[in-house]
Amino acid sequence: MNPAPADNQQKVFPTKVNRLPDWLRQEIPNAQRIGEMKQLFRGSRLHTVCESAHCPNMGKCWGQGVATFMILGDVCTRACRFCAIKAGLPTELDLAEPRNVALAVKELNLRYVVVTSVARDDLKDEGAGQFADTIREIRSIMPQTKIEVLVPDFSNDLGRLQILVDAKPEVISHNLETVRRLSPKVRPQADYDRTLSVLRNYKSLSHEIFVKSSIMVGIGETQDEVNQAMADLSQAGCDILTIGQYLAPTQLKRHLPVMEYVTPEKFKEYEAFGYGLGFKHVMSGPLVRSSFIAEEGYSGAISFQTRTVL
């Protein structure tokens, strides 16, 4: 008879794995292009989630001149256990940031841009106004650029959510991240049902804006739990879904270990199940992230909507 786990965390996250499978290996990125991108961001005092979150796709995306801008600084007021972004007391708000992001979008000549942020629970509007200002600044000098925002929950305050909706981005994304059972461990300062409510509220506030969310797998969830999370997102009105492999950003105790490297075949199963639930676009694969080739998700949702109307 096996001994009982020593504590509850061992029950929730039973066994970690270490060997990286071949399907997660990446090509060596273009060092010159990465250097050029870094120079642009540092010169404008801008941050990218690519660097701050240790995204495995950074080399590939930056090599193509694509990046996800991270506003509201680089220190987060929350400490999710999957995230590499620094947690603590943020600095003052940079009022020049929205304009600087817009100028960088122009410099890179982006036809599609993703803007995300740290959580800023210290601010009165939790940063909703800075998102809206950034969207307006991009629109003022790059009106043809499509804009996606990946936002925190803003404590599900309808007034703050309305600020985002009034700015009219093409896509509003807010991530569920994991299944219900693991949510308290993975996102201790967030809430599974609150996330679903945020997505539902965005959809009710505007039927013209696509609503998007993302799930990580490989943290100890079961297939049935993932399917249920996908069903919950569909019922909340989510249009676009991404599913990707969790990779621990560091070996520090605060970061969750990888429990499983999910196979590409299993990701295909999740994709098929998602389409069966009625999502307008599903992107599911080991290296998929919420912002990775995000334009494809938007284009897929547009195509789905067009086919449905016809």
Q: Element order, helices and strands?
A: HHEHHEEEHEHEHEHHEHEHEH
Q: What is the strand arrangement across the widest sheet?
A: 1-2-5-6-7-8-9-10
Please tell me what the overall shape is: globular
Total number of distinct structural domains: 1
- The number of distinct helices, counting runs of at least 4 residues, comes to 12
What percent strand? 5-15%
Helix content: 40-55%
Measured on Cα atoms, how large is the radius of gyration?
19 Å
Q: From the helix content, strand content and strand pairing, which structural class follows?
A: alpha/beta
Query: Mean pLDDT, as a whole number?
Result: 84
CATH-scheme architecture: Alpha-Beta Barrel
CATH class: Alpha Beta
CATH-assigned homologous superfamily? Aldolase class I
Poorly predicted ranges: 1-14, 49-54
How many individual β-strands?
10
CATH topology: TIM Barrel
Largest sheet: 8 strands, mixed
Distance between the termini: 62 Å
Structural write-up:
- This protein has 310 residues and is of the alpha/beta class.
- It has one domain (27-309): TIM Barrel.
- Helix content is 40%, strand content 14%.
- It contains 12 helices and 10 strands.
- It has helices spanning 8-12, 31-43, 49-52, 58-63, 97-108, 128-141, 158-167, 183-186, 192-205, 223-235, 264-277, 294-309, and strands at 47-48, 68-71, 75-76, 86-87, 112-117, 146-150, 171-173, 210-217, 240-245, 281-284.
- The model is unreliable at 1-14 and 49-54 (pLDDT under 50).
